[in-house]
Amino acid sequence: MIRMTRREALTASGAALLASTTVAGRAAAAEAKKIPIYGHRGASALRPEHTLASYAKAIADGADFIEPDLVPTKDGVLIVRHENNIAETTDIASHPEFADRKTEKVIDGQKQVGWFTEDFTLAELKRLRAKERLGQLRPQNAAMDGWFDLVTWAEMIDFAAAESLARGRTIGLVPEIKHSTYFASIGLPMEDRFLASLAAHHYTRTAPVVIQSFETANLKYLRQKLGRPTNIQLMQLTAGEDVPPADIAKAGGKTSYNDLMKPEGLAGIARYADILAPDTRTIIPLGPDGRLAKPSPVTADAHKAGLLVQPWTFRPENYFLARDFQDANGPAARNVAGSVAEIRAYLAAGIDGFFTDDPAIGRQAIDQQSTHS
Known about the structure:
This protein is of the alpha/beta class.
């Protein structure tokens, strides 16, 4: 599966994009191109995140890509966890043999207390079981605490390959390289390990892989090392914050995420990355009343720079929805209709793909957008 760059898409579908000055035109343009659905940590609204159960559900529900966050173990193995601090997502607190490894660290400028993957070998981490991170909002997931073990990146690649064969469709991978600058500072640089893992597996040599990071230097390094293989794209994650990425801060720079999303910053990103991935509220911010306000210029500016725009993350609970789309069932309630409507608003604003905790809802939103265009 070969995906077009934004520049190629602009050339191939110029007429559709010219028509996109209206909501209907934007919907038609979305229908004319592939809108990838990224299963955020799998189907994490329905299964504990970063477990094979979560990834299996995402694939069954129509995700085009499944997302692992990658952090290293003490012995240099890439393991799938959202953070290297595993206090909230594993049962490590119930293991008395690891009690003395609880510690305090500063990760990307943030003080944290917990247990950290870099202090454990893979064999030790395999003794742990996964837990739901958002137990208050997702009690059905919390009921599965202890069911599933921790997954390595190599195991996940094999799982995606097996699922692809079983289902007769290609399943992309969208790994995020976490805390590169921090891990390099403690002698566990990730990028070359990661590149070796791509080369070691037939599936990642051929299937679509989108590599993401909130840092910039690692993506530039990966672009230099990888070149531009047809199956790999690079994704620059950004946050709607006036703080610099960790690598820029470490080097004494002042360029913030907000600066990166200005036209000159986007032009710089386009020199090494293919995709801009801001948080959803950067694309359409919330007004003082908690409802969606007017779309920001970021999407149009990124498109002008030649970047695809694929934001994170749509979640189905009322707690996460803009007030426009909430119902009266309380913050923890799953609100399918509201989530579909919210995603459709962003599709109409011109996004090219998106991360969601519930790929089935994402698929429904795309299908409805196509039907009503």
